[in-house]
Amino acid sequence: MQRKNTDSLVFMAPMAGITDRPFRSIIHDCGEGNLISEMVAVNAIQRKNPKSYKIADVRPENYPVTVQMVGNSPELFAEAAKFIYELGAAALDINMGCPVKKIINNNSGSALMKDTCLAAKIIEATVKATPLKVSVKFRKGWDNEHVNAVDFAKMCEQSGASRITIHGRTRAQGYSGFADWNIIAEAKSAVKIPVIGNGDIDSAKKAKEMMQKYGVDGVMVGRALLGNPWLLNKIHHFLETGEELKNPNTADIKEMLLRHLELLVEYYGERNGLSVSRKHIGWYVKSLYEAKRFREQYTKLVVYDEAVDLINNFFAKVEE
Ligand SMILES: Cc1cc2nc3c(=O)[nH]c(=O)nc-3n(C[C@H](O)[C@H](O)[C@H](O)COP(=O)(O)O)c2cc1C
User: Is there a contact between 276 and 266 (Cβ–Cβ < 8 Å)?
Assistant: First the structure.
């Protein structure tokens, strides 16, 4: 199996329910960008849970994909890492930032920022398990009284992580408020391994600002990719050349949306694929005329051909 490099400085953020194989493929086709899976639970992978297996199985993809793992047991991380390595991952990432209750109640995700001893053991065990590089993604801290991103970054480095990504919000913030880019800069100056900045990047200019003013080695983009898979390539191009690529026109959006739908149906089957496509379709068309009515009609459809017809009719009207 060919292992490829994952050396782009512009990263797709892992997003459960979103960064699946179809979406990665779409972003890959747009050009540059470092791709990552949805998070996969190490205990579910060990039980060979079919859904987790499908998430971790990146063999059909002819470009490098990092697989993100979540859990709380160093032993299970090591086992899962070996398994995921065999399934073709180009690199491994450990989730130490997820704020969701189900995850933190299990002492996983951002809960590990409160248990740095366990976090260190998990990183060490994962690093030892395979030849793959291991990165860690975490937050500013648990809450405003427990901001420990700088010490956590040092711990990651000492435990063998080859790179870290910091989302500049605390667990208590969830996704609200603003990401604190200063804490990311502080952590960057405290370690030698590459630091990727994450939180609120929604344009090439903001990405450049994060890189230049805050000194990070790379940027990671999440929510701004929804309905805008062109963005990672636009950022990459702007960082390389200083030139802003044009925004996609309506015809580009239509073509992308149809391609995305086709891939979702291929991957999940007709009914589930259409169901997953609803949120993506909504994001693609949100700024177009009569989008609300189109979305309402789209949500009722369960047949692929009818969905394609509706999309074609909608864009014919938009383009009139
Ligand atoms: C719907 C959704 C799902 C997410 N799932 C994950 C995940 O599985 N693993 C993870 O590390 N972060 C996850 N995140 C957090 C993002 O990776 C990212 O850190 C966060 O959205 C901040 O970046 P942004 O401001 O560019 O969106 C998720 C975020 C969203 C909105």
Answer: no
CA distance 76 to 152: 22
Ligand 1 centroid from CA 14, angstroms: 6
Q: H helices of the chain, where?
A: 21-30, 42-46, 50-56, 74-86, 101-104, 116-129, 149-158, 181-190, 204-214, 231-241, 250-268, 270-285, 291-299, 304-319
Instruction: Verify whether ligand 1 is closer than 6 Å to residue 97 (CB atom).
Output: yes
| Residue 98 falls in the annotated catalytic set | yes
pLDDT digits (tens, 9 = 90+) for 274-291: 999 999 999 999 988 889
Strand order in the sheet with 218-221: 10-12, 218-221, 195-198, 163-170, 134-141, 91-96, 65-70, 35-41
Per residue in 167-220, pLDDT tens? 999 999 999 999 999 999 999 999 999 999 999 999 999 999 999 999 999 999
Is 98 a residue whose pLDDT tops 80?
A: yes
- Cα 219 to its chain centre, rounded Å, is 12
Mean pLDDT of the chain: 95
The stretches of 6-88 forming alpha helices (DSSP H) are 21-30, 42-46, 50-56, 74-86
Give the pLDDT confidence of 160-173 residue by residue, as tens digits.
999 999 999 999 99
Q: Which domains does the chain have, with CATH numbers?
A: 10-241 (3.20.20.70), 250-319 (1.10.1200.80)
pLDDT of residue 275: 97
- Whether 222 is in the pocket of ligand 1, judged by its Cβ within 6 Å, is yes
Spot the catalytic one: 30, 98, 117, 156.
98
Q: Against a cut of 0.85, is the pTM above it? A: yes
**Do residues 253 and 19 lie in contact, with contact meaning Cβ atoms separated by under 8 Å?**
no
What is the rounded average pLDDT of the residues 221-229?
A: 98
- SS3 assignment, position 39: strand
The Cα–Cα gap between 191 and 308 comes to: 50
